[in-house]
């Protein structure tokens, strides 16, 4: 139940299943990979939007937690994303706007998941 995928950019991505399903727990589950990719997609957007606004952003972390449907297909039904943005003098309003733009216009992954899941966001700013 271990799988390797080669992405369009030529990189390898390994996935595995839980031992009770025949996997060896050696890599993330495919659905964990979907969530991680969504977090990366939206973090990329947030940083890019803030930098284009000439804000001194130094870093961005996203903690993603999700709930799934109990019946097959076990789609995501709720997703919470908590952003920690580090920078100098970055206004909270700019971070809030960047997150909203990502989820409403730019992040294909979160927009797609938003078709089945309620997505909520929160953030904190850390002065660097």
**What is the 3D shape?**
globular
Radius of gyration: 16 Å
* Overall CATH architecture: 2-Layer Sandwich
Number of domains: 1
Q: For the largest sheet, list the strands in their spatial order.
A: 3-4-5
How would you sum up the major sheet? 3 strands, mixed
Number of strands: 5
Q: State the end-to-end distance.
A: 43 Å
Our count of helices gives 3
Mean pLDDT: 97
Q: Determine the fraction of residues in helical runs and give it as a percent range.
A: 25-40%
What's the CATH superfamily, by name?
A: K homology (KH) domain
**In what range is the share of β-strand residues?**
25-35%
Structural summary, described in words:
This protein has 128 residues and is of the alpha+beta class. The protein has one domain (29-127): K homology (KH) domain (GMP Synthetase, Chain A, domain 3), CATH 3.30.300. Helix content is 34%, strand content 34%. The chain is built from three helices and five strands. The protein has helices spanning 30-52, 92-106, 108-113; strands spanning 3-6, 12-15, 56-68, 76-88, 118-127. It has a three-stranded mixed β-sheet, with helices on one face. α1 (30-52) crosses α2. The longest helix has 23 residues, at 30-52. The mean pLDDT is 97.
């Amino acid at each position: 139940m271990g799988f390797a995928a080669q992405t369009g950019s030529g990189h390898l991505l390994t996935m595995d299943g839980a031992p009770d399903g025949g996997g060896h727990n050696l890599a993330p589950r495919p659905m964990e990979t979907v969530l991680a990719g969504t977090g990366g997609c939206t973090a990329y957007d947030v940083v890019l939007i803030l930098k284009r606004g000439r804000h001194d952003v130094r870093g961005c972390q996203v903690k993603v937690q999700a709930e799934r449907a109990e019946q097959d297909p076990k789609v995501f039904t709720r997703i919470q994303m908590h952003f920690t943005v580090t920078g100098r003098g970055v206004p909270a309003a700019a971070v809030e706007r960047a997150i909203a733009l990502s989820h409403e216009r730019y992040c294909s992954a979160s927009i797609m998941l938003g078709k089945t899941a309620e997505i909520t966001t929160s953030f904190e700013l850390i002065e660097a």
